[in-house]
Write a structure and sequence with these properties.
Blueprint lengths: L2 H20 L20 H19 L8 H4 L9 H15 L2
Helix pairs in contact: 1-2, 1-4
Length: 99
């Protein structure tokens, strides 16, 4: 399976888990917002989403990954805006670390 497909499956798996865990109805779509006003996740939900994502990606690809960093905290990064941006960011990061 290609990195792109694997990453998308992981993201959608976590969306499904958060939907069940938090009684949400987040769509499994590239347009789904992770952070911001249109997101169904509150700040704690975003944090747990990101931690779970980091853990699964690290285990799946045997790499170290940090999604919450100074850029994210200072709002100068947008890789968590929606699923599409997150997926593209993760493809780039995983590809750099698995070469």
């Amino acid at each position: 399976m290609k990195i792109e497909q694997k990453i998308e499956q992981i993201i959608y798996k976590i969306i499904g888990e958060k939907n069940n865990e938090l009684n949400l109805s987040m769509e499994k779509s590239l347009k789904t917002n992770i952070v911001g006003g249109k997101s169904q996740l509150d700040s704690l939900g975003v944090f747990s989403f990101v931690l779970e994502l980091e853990k699964i990606i690290e285990n799946e690809f045997k790499i170290d990954l940090t999604l919450i960093n100074d850029d994210f905290i200072n709002d100068s990064s947008n890789h968590l805006d929606n699923v599409k941006k997150l997926k593209l960011f993760l493809i780039k990061e995983v590809s750099k670390k698995t070469v």
